[in-house]
Design a protein that fits this description.
Layout lengths: L1 H4 L8 H13 L21 E2 L6 H12 L14 H5 L2 E8 L7 E3 L1 H14 L2 E5 L2 E8 L5 E15 L5 E14 L5 E7 L7 H13 L12 H8 E8 L5 E3 L1 H12 L2 E15 L5 E14 L4 E12 L5 E8 L12
Parallel strand pairs: 2-8, 9-14
Antiparallel strand pairs: 1-6, 2-3, 4-6, 5-6, 6-7, 7-8, 9-10, 11-12, 12-13, 13-14
């Protein structure tokens, strides 16, 4: 289980313990995201160019809440408008759900059909989907929202029977934008099957370890980490950065981070798996908080979301982090 793979066994200062205890409130619920497929886009993220004075987090949260209403309005919360929802997408935008290619809908018209089949034809009577956490990937200049990940859960009822329906509370969505703020890719992450939970937790542990071990938790080995955990052509992306392709580039990015710290304690909130219909693990998503100490002795917390896609051999084919780089050691605030 998650608790056995991530026991709290490291000494923390009283201030850090207090901050960690508050993280579920600071993050709303601290849910997770789930990875979907076995590929990633190695191209640039065009991103949504925000206007002057626009708060990126507020813009992202507002967009996420509109996305999860499926065209309905606060005044008529169960009157779905799938055409309006599809208009959140670019004309050639893509929506993908967990599973194989049959869960992919390319183009605004097909996105509309998906929504109609799922909600109208599917007979959903009521459904509320509160957004619980948002994490961003901003451009280096802070003016462009390149992508975001947000967590959610849904609950409601069916028309025909009145039976309750729900999506898991640890569900999430990842999306990229074009310059006008329309979705170019959206991926919903959830797992109804409930399989591979231990393997998912172990995969999350491997990702967050940075090559350290339980017996040497602060001895980071980025070269071994990249070579043993990532596929040879695996890729990593950090907020504001391009994709780093290949294990050499990934090891260099890992090393740049660990050079700033003396301790780093990963505290995952929830880890869950996304699977193909036959139960094969596609990847995991992690809602995490890093409790760390910089080389200057500053303690800091860094919350974020990550998706980790895995190949048939279990190695990472792509990982992408969503967090606020201003909270990294060089500019972190004491806690």
């Amino acid at each position: 289980s998650l608790e056995t793979i991530f026991p709290i066994r490291y000494p923390l200062s009283s201030k850090m313990v207090s901050k960690l205890a508050m993280m579920p409130l600071l993050l709303a619920t601290g849910s997770t995201a789930l990875a979907l497929d076995l590929s990633h886009s190695a191209g640039t993220n065009e991103g949504w160019v925000l206007g002057d004075g626009v708060d990126p987090h507020d813009a992202a949260m507002t967009f996420a809440e509109a996305y999860m209403r499926f065209g309905a309005t606060p005044a008529a919360p169960y009157k779905w408008d799938c055409a309006a929802w599809a208009n959140l997408f670019a004309l050639d935008g893509v929506f993908q759900g967990p599973g194989n290619a049959s869960a992919t809908f390319a183009g605004r018209a097909n996105v509309n059909l998906f929504c109609t089949d799922a909600l109208v034809v599917g007979g959903v009577a009521t459904m509320s989907c509160p957004v619980t956490q948002v994490a961003l990937d901003m451009s280096a200049d802070g003016k462009t929202l390149r992508g975001m990940m947000f967590t959610w859960g849904c609950y409601g009822s069916m028309k025909a029977t009145g039976a309750a329906m729900a999506y898991p509370a640890n569900s999430a969505t990842y999306m990229d934008f074009d310059a006008s703020g329309q979705i170019t890719m959206a991926r919903d992450f959830f797992d109804f099957a409930g399989v591979n939970s231990d393997l998912a937790a172990q995969t999350a542990h491997d990702y967050l370890s940075l090559g350290s071990t339980t017996t040497a938790p602060f001895k980071f080995d980025c070269s071994s980490y990249a070579a043993n955990k990532y596929a040879p052509d695996g890729a990593m992306q950090l907020p504001g950065s391009p994709w780093f392709n290949g294990t050499t580039a990934i090891a260099q990015q890992c090393a740049a981070y660990v050079a700033k710290i003396t301790t780093s304690i990963p505290v995952p909130r929830i880890v869950a798996a996304s699977n193909l219909p036959n139960g094969v693990l596609q990847g995991v998503g992690i809602s995490w908080t890093i409790a760390a100490t910089s080389t200057t002795g500053d303690e800091f917390l860094l919350p974020g979301l990550t998706y980790v896609l895995v190949g048939a051999d279990g190695k990472f084919t792509a990982t992408r982090d969503f967090f606020d780089p201003s909270q990294l050691p060089s500019v972190s605030k004491s806690v």
